[in-house]
Amino acid sequence: MEIAYTKTTLANGLDVILHEDHALPIVAVNVWYHVGSKDERPGRTGFAHLFEHLMFEGSANHDSGYFPPLQDAGAAVNGSTNADRTNYWEVVPTGALELALFLESDRMGFLLPALTEKKFTTQREVVINERRQNYENRPYGLAGIAMATALYPSRHPYHWPTIGYTPDLRDATLDDVRDFFARHYHPANASLALAGDIDPARALALVERYFGDLPAGPPVPAVAVPHDGIASERRIVLEDRVDRPRVYLAWRSPALFAEGDAALDVVADVIASGKTSRLYRTLVHERRLALDVSAAQSSRELEGFFQLAATAAPGRTLAEIEAVVTAALAELAADGPTDAELSRALAQAEANFIYRLQTVGGFSGKSDQLNAYNVYRGDPGSFDADLARYLRLTPADVRDAARRLVASPHVALSVVPTGASDQALAGSETAVAS
Amino acid sequence: MTAPAPRTLPAVGDSRGIHFPPIHKHTRGDGLRVWTVEHRGLPVVCLSVLWPIGSAADPVDRFGLTSLTADLLDEGTRTLDAVALHDALARIGSHLEGEVGPDAAALGLVTLVRHGARATELLADVASHPRFDESDFVRVRDNRISRLVQMRDVPAAVAERIFGTQLYGAHPYGHSSVGVERTLRATTLDDVRRFHAEVLLRTTPTIIAVGDVTPADVIRWVDAAWPVQAGGFVAATAPSVSTAALPKGPSLSLVQRANAAQSELRVGRVSAARSTPDYAALAVMNTILGGTFVSRVNLKLREQKGFTYGVRSTFDYRREPGPFSVQTSVQASATTEAIADILTEIRDISGARPATEVEIAKAQAALTRSYPRSFETVEQVARAVAQMALHGLSDDYFDNFVRDVSRVTAAQVSDVAQRYVPAEDLHVVVVGDRSHLSADGLGRGPIVERSVGED
Q: Domain locations in chain B?
């Protein structure tokens, strides 16, 4: 399996990746800007995500909203922001490719002349509402923010949340926002992938027509990463409007594609994913200490983090859960997975790689994968290499990854019902989650 | 070098149309149906089984029974305990997805084609020979009860639950498929065993296969794996339903949530059934009102006022008339104004500001041009086929949809808005802090406080 593609870099530095798939009369247009919340600075957080909103509010040559012409054309449109990058995509009928390219190019080259104080303040309010809805007003919604705050030192680019701190958003000025755009949103910091019902020569000519004359923009300096980790285990507690206490254990871990990254995916799988996992069996099925358990290696560009979470069953304590989790991790770190556990995890990984090839666009469709590989590895053709790093894993690789993980200090976050801080793990200090 | 383009909005060119792929339909001697759609490209297949029996058929003192039974199916079979079953599924790169709605229950998976026979075997085993151990039953039921307790903290879940009872009262659509704490506590393993053996297993199943397969492959897999029903399967008996006894709108319900940062809102009423002859006109009307990002309500509440991250309206089409609802979460201080704005937008589309020809043309274009996108993955196609099987839609239904939408007129849009969503009847549900809610001027009557508990 491979995603056949061609890659061309325009004179202004824009990478253009083309993939033909004529199964349906649709084309996916996918743009990655290599900017995320990691590129922000303390006191001015939330900008990359705020831009994801402003980018839909019109540009100089089409100053009347991004969605209407695309919606009329039958397109699906969305975007997302994380710590590392921002992506924007459309999936359009074949006949609307040029429309999508015009709109994407216009906001890449001509957003600022159309950006007004009114648009800025309205979208800032929308973002503050998004933050209330998805974080503040949602059970356990602030856990991720509390965890990142504790896990990374204050100068670390992953310390602050992608959604931003509300006071920072309120303090932001239009000039701050213009400055952030000028630094990061230009062809030399972007990658454009088209996948679907295209004629590559014609598609490339269209891309050249719409993007070719945009100025390259200034080089984007690499983000500085302080390497001081957490010195020792930390326990923190967050009170929330929840019924059941939940514990989150998190470790800083290898970056995306780094040694140990794929192995930690398998660790997560063996330890806590699905009903075959060790902790589902002990915590949920046999001993009924927890209502649920999950784990994931979150692979990110600068470094990853590995997190495990479990919600206490009625009458059970987080301390009981923590003891079982600690023992299970220690056992995996000592003995590694069984051959059967590893082969099962790899069968799932391989099938999931193939399922991902079903869509040309959207989040994690083929165009998004081509851009991800291009931005993070400089090579859109990394599908096979990515799969191979899983298929060659041995039980010893997985054991070693688990061993390195548990040898490093972690943060234990207890989220407990309001007024019930006694239900947290012993010795927890009050978490900072703002 | 290509010359730079003029920076003006390019016209949208034509795209080739698509046809919904043919469905190969096979009926076995016992009535079991096998529907296959060949969807080539990748070596994957989606296999599912659909029973036209859902939570609306739950006995009144056993709300949640269908859903609980479906949830217990994957706790192991007579020959495979839960761990062995999930291990077997993982080894074919798969996992089971169960779904129970008001009208149907379904169980399905996606796997690689080379595992198709094994996947069918596992699906048949899970559906036909569940283990139903007492200890699994107690754990799964108790976890569901715990989740229901947890859901009392989730404003959207609370709003949905109150909205359901507000609209439907004692009607079978008035409870969510998961049930309520009281009825789950009353449910026993015998109830589950009896429902499975006497209702689910006797009801005609439709096996739906979509992927890089031939009908002959799928029929062979099913024949080898699916037990033959002696005496034949029987058609599902729909619960007897009277819509005459539905609670009358309008109403204004509040679930108090002190100091909530946002208010969760639902506005709507019992509206249209899947079989409505007005389906296309309703689709156009809803697209304009609240079906898309550029809809009237989203432009008003999000883009003009910044009250919310988003708002949308939907028709949930069911066998019997399903709910129409506008759903959003707004900043607390904007609660009353947001409700008034939503009611105004609904009222105006059939009154003061009827849909314009331009809006209608845009909605038609959006609906018809987006159509090919809906059939990209095997799961998407399988879901469409399941709708056809459940609601008895004709094979050319999806192809005709494009034509029907193109013919909708402005008069029809106004007419369906008036008949299906009359603003004066609408129920409003608020989960938020009462200090931000005023009944004055909303025309819904006084605020009625509700709470979510065991029932």
A: 24-225, 251-450
Task: Report the gap between the CA of A256 and the closest CA in chain B (Å).
Answer: 23
Given a cut of 60, whether residue B1 has pLDDT beyond it is: no
> Can you say whether the dihedral through the CA atoms of A344, A349, A354, A360 is positive or negative?
positive
At position B424, the amino acid (one-letter code) is E
Mean pLDDT of B150-159: 93
Chain A positions touching B18 (Cβ under 8 A) are: 24-25
Residues A20/A198, Cβ–Cβ less than 8 Å:
yes
Number of residues written out for chain A: 434
Dihedral sign from CA coordinates of A61, A63, A64, A68: positive
Query: pTM of the entire structure?
Result: 0.92
CATH architecture, range B24-225: 2-Layer Sandwich (3.30)
Distance from CA of B413 to the nearest CA of A (A): 18
Q: Give the three-state DSSP class for B397.
A: helix
Rounded to whole angstroms, how far apart are CA atoms A236 and A412?
A: 6
Calpha distance A23→B21 (Å, rounded): 12
Closest CA to B2 of A380, A11, A234: A11
Average pLDDT by consecutive 10-residue portion of chain A (434 residues)? 93 98 97 97 94 94 92 93 97 97 97 95 91 89 96 93 95 93 96 98 97 94 82 92 95 96 98 94 94 97 97 96 98 97 96 96 96 97 96 98 96 97 97 90
The tokens of B28 are what? 């076995």
Strand order in the sheet with A304-312: A290-298, A304-312, A246-253, A411-417, A234-240, A429-430
Nearest Cα of chain A lies from the Cα of B340 at a distance, in angstroms, of 19
Q: Which CATH architecture has domain A6-211?
A: 2-Layer Sandwich (3.30)
* CB–CB contact B372 A26 (8 Å): yes
The dihedral built from the CA positions of residue B96, A284, B146 and A428, taken in this order, carries a sign that is negative
Nearby residues of A293 by Cβ (< 8 Å), 6 or more positions away: A272, A277, A279, A280, A283, A284, A308, A309, A310
Query: B159 and B265 in contact (C-beta within 8 Å)?
Result: yes
B251-450: same fold as B24-225?
yes
Q: Which helix (H) or strand (E) covers residue A81, if one does? A: strand A76-81
B155 to chain A: which residues are within 8 Å by CB?
Answer: 137
Fold agreement (A6-211, A234-430): yes
Among the partner-chain residues B42, B142, B307, the one whose CB lies closest to the CB of A358 is B42
B251-450: CATH topology: Cytochrome Bc1 Complex; Chain A, domain 1 (3.30.830)
Pick among B302, B304, B309 to test the A interface (most A CBs inside 10 A): B309
**Beta carbons of B83 and A281 less than 8 Å apart:** yes
Sort A354 into a burial class: Cβ within 10 Å, 0-12 / 13-18 / 19+: middle
Q: Residues A341, A347: contact at Cβ < 8 Å?
A: no
d(CA A296, CA A270): 11
**Among A338, A331, A351, A353, residue whose Cα is nearest residue A394:** A338
ipTM of the complex: 0.89
How many whole angstroms separate alpha carbon B314 and alpha carbon B331?
21
Are A133 and B376 within 8 A, CB to CB?
Answer: no
Residue spans per domain, chain A:
6-211, 234-430
The rounded distance, in Å, linking the Cα atoms of B419 and B271 is 9
CA distance B400 to B412: 18
CA torsion sign for B405, B410, B414, B415 is: negative
Which residues on B lie below 8 Å from A281 (Cβ)? 83
Exposure letters A65-94 (e unless 16+ CB within 10 A, then b): bbbbbbbbbbbbbebebbbbbbbbbbbbbb
CATH architecture of A234-430: 2-Layer Sandwich (3.30)
A223/chain B closest Cα distance in angstroms: 30
